[in-house]
Amino acid sequence: RSLVAAEADGDERAVEAALRPRTLDEVVGQVRVREQLGLVLEAARRRGRTPDHVLLSGPPGLGKTTLAMIIAAEMSAPLRLTSGPAITHAGDLAAILSGMNEGDVLFVDEIHRMSRPAEEMLYMAMEDFRVDVVIGKGPGATAIPLEIPPFTLVGATTRAGLLPGPLRDRFGFTAHLEFYEPDDLDRIVRRSAGLLGCEVELDGTAEIASRSRGTPRIANRLLRRVRDYAQVRADGVVTRAVARAALDLYEVDASGLDRLDRAVLDALCRRFGGGPVGVSTLAVAVGEERETVEEVAEPFLVRQGLLARTPRGRVATPAAWAHLGLRAPAGTWA
Ligand code: ADP
């Protein structure tokens, strides 16, 4: 992975945390989601009740964790964080749920990756605030019902469609987060620069915003790399020229495609003649898991008009060929 795509290290994580909006008012963009969620929370507050369960879907880095933290903060409730892959047994979930207090917010990231038995336990917990804890094995096993105080589950998933219907139906409010427009990303970059005490020019932040892949997390990460460059190789000010030079150095292209995005396009055009090709085949070609290609790379490529999902497989659009500097073979695009 390139530097820019690399997982944040410890310090970087602390910086990322410092840049998180703390209240709904600080959240940039996502106007509709903010208004809808604001109403859900305000109504619950007035009734003195725990808000309904909330499902947040959308690609990584668009603000799902941030919103979960804000839900807890706005309700003045503690937040507990876990993730689907961490809950391998129903017992793991029972342990978490039995430690909850009334009004607590439980955030389950990647909720679609929870094990089946845990999922079934969660249905009951969400609906009846009760779980059956099974003690022992085989014919001697007994189920002990356990009451759980009312809590709010906030589930996050890359695509709501990955959840089984019964689980999806138990959320009272579902929000889908979309990629951000350059204007919103620009506001996020300027807000972050202010918090970091970094001097920026308007066309400098616009340059970062336009290469951020529609994603706030990436916008903040690129800002940090550009800030490094500005401090070491220039006079500390993020101008357009500084932003361009830094982003070129880190191989973020002008459309913001990252290494995986480019690898997918490259395989699609060069190895599979532009498709149609199945997503699993494409994933093998780029050495990634199918889910990563489907849930991380594809949504952005589709939105950029570079890739199309057809019933017969994935197809490169004329723009994809152009992006790679290649000529589309005649007759590949109907
Ligand atoms: P997800 O959980 O969807 O992967 P996060 O909530 O962790 O994404 O967001 C990643 C980073 O992007 C956060 O550190 C936060 O600073 C920033 N961010 C996300 N959404 C927004 C937003 N709407 N406004 C400002 N910053 C945001």
TrEMBL record:
Residues 254-334 are annotated as: Head domain (RuvB-H). Residues 50-181 form the AAA+ ATPase domain. GO terms for cellular component: cytoplasm; Holliday junction resolvase complex. CDD domains: AAA (cd00009). It is an enzyme of class 3 (hydrolase). Its EC number is 3.6.4.-. It catalyses: ATP + H2O = ADP + phosphate + H(+). NCBIfam families: PRK00080.1, ruvB. Homohexamer. Forms an RuvA(8)-RuvB(12)-Holliday junction (HJ) complex. HJ DNA is sandwiched between 2 RuvA tetramers; dsDNA enters through RuvA and exits via RuvB. An RuvB hexamer assembles on each DNA strand where it exits the tetramer. Each RuvB hexamer is contacted by two RuvA subunits (via domain III) on 2 adjacent RuvB subunits; this complex drives branch migration. In the full resolvosome a probable DNA-RuvA(4)-RuvB(12)-RuvC(2) complex forms which resolves the HJ. This is Holliday junction branch migration complex subunit RuvB. The gene is ruvB.
